[in-house]
C-alpha cells in the first residue's frame, strides 16, 4: 500500500461514520436525514429500493426528485455517500444500470453499489461468471463516462461471497472504476474476518458496519467491539479514510442506531483521541 497514517488528517476519519438508509426502510427520506444528523453521522448511502428508486433517465420529474433528495441531504450537513442500487450484473438488464448511474449523478453521489449475480460461487457455472464479468466491464465503462464509481456488494449468494472470489472477479473485470464494499461474513471469527478485509484493501471503497452473531442475529455494535476495533486499527493505519456506514441495527430501532453511532465514534476516538471527537 505504501501509505503512512500520518499522510492523512486523522479528523477526516471522524467524518466517515454514516448510515445506509435501508436500515430505516419504514421512515421517510426526510426522517432518515433528521435521524442521521441527530445521531452525529456524516453521510447516507441512499437505498434504491425505497428512498431513492431510480427513475427514467429521460424524465425531468424523476431527476428533479433525486436532485431534491441530494440537496436536502447536504442542507442538513450530510454527504451523499453512495446510491445503494439493486442492479445485479449477469441478471438485471444493463439499461437498469444506466438508470442507476443517472440517479447517482442527480443525487451527486460519487458511487453506485452493485451486485455480482444472484447465486453463490458454489452454484455458479462458467457461463454465469463470463456474463457477470462482461456486464461489469460494460457497466464500469458507462459509470466512468459519467464520473461515477461502481462498488460491489460483498455478500452471500453472489460471486462476491468470499474474499477469493471477489478478488478473482475484480481482476477478471480489470477496471479501475470497479471497487468493493466490505462487511463481516456471517459466523466468521475476528481474525479471519480482519485478514479478509486486509486482502481487499487495494479495492476497498466503503465498509458496512453492523454487529451480527451468530448468523444474522443482531447485537449492539459494542458486543462485537473486538471485531470493529481490529478492523478500524487495520483501516486507519493502511488506507485513506473511507465511508463507515451503519447498517441493520437491532429491530431497525432509532435508539439502537443512536447507541451504535456512539459506539462507532468511541472506537474511532480511541485511536486518535486528540483529533477524533
In short:
The chain has helices at 11-14, 29-38, 60-75, 94-107, 126-145, 163-173, 190-200, 225-238, 254-271, and strands spanning 17-20, 43-47, 79-89, 111-116, 149-152, 178-182, 204-209, 243-246.
Structure description:
- Residues 1-10 have low confidence and may be disordered.
- The protein is of the alpha/beta class and 277 residues long.
- Helix 4 (94-107) packs parallel to helix 5 (126-145).
- It is built from nine helices and eight strands.
- It has helices spanning 11-14, 29-38, 60-75, 94-107, 126-145, 163-173, 190-200, 225-238, 254-271, and strands at 17-20, 43-47, 79-89, 111-116, 149-152, 178-182, 204-209, 243-246.
- Strands 1-2-3-4-5-6-7-8 form an eight-stranded parallel beta barrel, surrounded by five helices.
- The chain has one domain: TIM Barrel, CATH 3.20.20.150.
- Helix 8 (225-238) links the parallel strand 7 (204-209) and strand 8 (243-246).
Amino acid at each position: 500500500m505504501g501509505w503512512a497514517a500520518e499522510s492523512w488528517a486523522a479528523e477526516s476519519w471522524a467524518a466517515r461514520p454514516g448510515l445506509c438508509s435501508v436500515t430505516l426502510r419504514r421512515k421517510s427520506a426526510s426522517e432518515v436525514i433528521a435521524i442521521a444528523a441527530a445521531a452525529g453521522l456524516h453521510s447516507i448511502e441512499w437505498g434504491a429500493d425505497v428512498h431513492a428508486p431510480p427513475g427514467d433517465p429521460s424524465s425531468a420529474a424523476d431527476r428533479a426528485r433525486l436532485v431534491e433528495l441530494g440537496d436536502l441531504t447536504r442542507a442538513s450537513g450530510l454527504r451523499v455517500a453512495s446510491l445503494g442500487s439493486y442492479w445485479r450484473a449477469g441478471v438485471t438488464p444493463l439499461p437498469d444500470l444506466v438508470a442507476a448511474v443517472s440517479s447517482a449523478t442527480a443525487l451527486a453521489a460519487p458511487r453506485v453499489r452493485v451486485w455480482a449475480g444472484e447465486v453463490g460461487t458454489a452454484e455458479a457455472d462458467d457461463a454465469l461468471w463470463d456474463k457477470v464479468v462482461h456486464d461489469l466491464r460494460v457497466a464500469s465503462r458507462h459509470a466512468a463516462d459519467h464520473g461515477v464509481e461502481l462498488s460491489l456488494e460483498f455478500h452471500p449468494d453472489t460471486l462476491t461471497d468470499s474474499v477469493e472470489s471477489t478478488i478473482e472477479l475484480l481482476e477478471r473485470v480489470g477496471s479501475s472504476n470497479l471497487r468493493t464494499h466490505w462487511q463481516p461474513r456471517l459466523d466468521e471469527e475476528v481474525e479471519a474476518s480482519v485478514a479478509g478485509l486486509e486482502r481487499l484493501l487495494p479495492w476497498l471503497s466503503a465498509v458496512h458496519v453492523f454487529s451480527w452473531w451468530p448468523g444474522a442475529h443482531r447485537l449492539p455494535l459494542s458486543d462485537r467491539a473486538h471485531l470493529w476495533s481490529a478492523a478500524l486499527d487495520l483501516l486507519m493505519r493502511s488506507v485513506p479514510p473511507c465511508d463507515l456506514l451503519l447498517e441493520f441495527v437491532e429491530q431497525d430501532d432509532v435508539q439502537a442506531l443512536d447507541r451504535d453511532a456512539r459506539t462507532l465514534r468511541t472506537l474511532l476516538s480511541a485511536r486518535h483521541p486528540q483529533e477524533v471527537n
